[in-house]
Amino acid sequence: MITNTPSLDLVEFVETNILPKYTEFDSAHNLEHVTRVIRNALELVRQTGADINMVYVIAAYHDLGMSGPRAVHHITGGRILATDARLKRWFSPEQIKIMKEAVEDHSASASHAPRSLYGKIIAEADRDIIPEVVFRRAIDYGLANCPELDREQQWKRFLQHMQEKYSAEGYIRLWIPGSQNERRLAELRAVIASPTLLRQHFDRLFEDSARQ
Questions:
Q1: How many angstroms separate the CA atoms of 37 and 122, rounded?
Q2: Dihedral over alpha carbons 78, 81, 85, 91 (to 10 degrees)
Q3: Mean pLDDT across the stretch 84-108?
């Protein structure tokens, strides 16, 4: 039976023990981000018929690997989920294996397609392709992780990231047909295709972030 909300005791566990860990990460992977990914993922449950408790946990754990090197955070996150014995209260070993693999498969730079529907859901939910959000996260990441760069160098880093990941030739892939991300990605690519317009967005958001 498909339910509209995750189990209340599972939500209490996640909100008490898991989500607070995101306060330790950078602003591109913080509590606001994971909350948005959870919301996106739960919306996809209604579209796909997936198990809502599994989707909720995958979304909640997906970036816990940011406690280690970013390049392998998806692998680390999968290991964190798989070794959290507390999850055995709600899930079978097979479900935990599927959830682990879904966390491993969520990275946009992964070399292979997600291995299950659950991997596709979290990968799609994590894309969060609202142009304003994408731009701000990229700027915030640059300021937090490359503080030695001046404004023009930050712009070049930002531009390269947009072109490599989100442009028509970028590596990002969508996995759920008909999702909101298809429309949002088209809007984002239209901005990226206009360097002048993209620079206007960068300058405005950079000013806001630099003041914080």
A1: 8
A2: -100
A3: 95
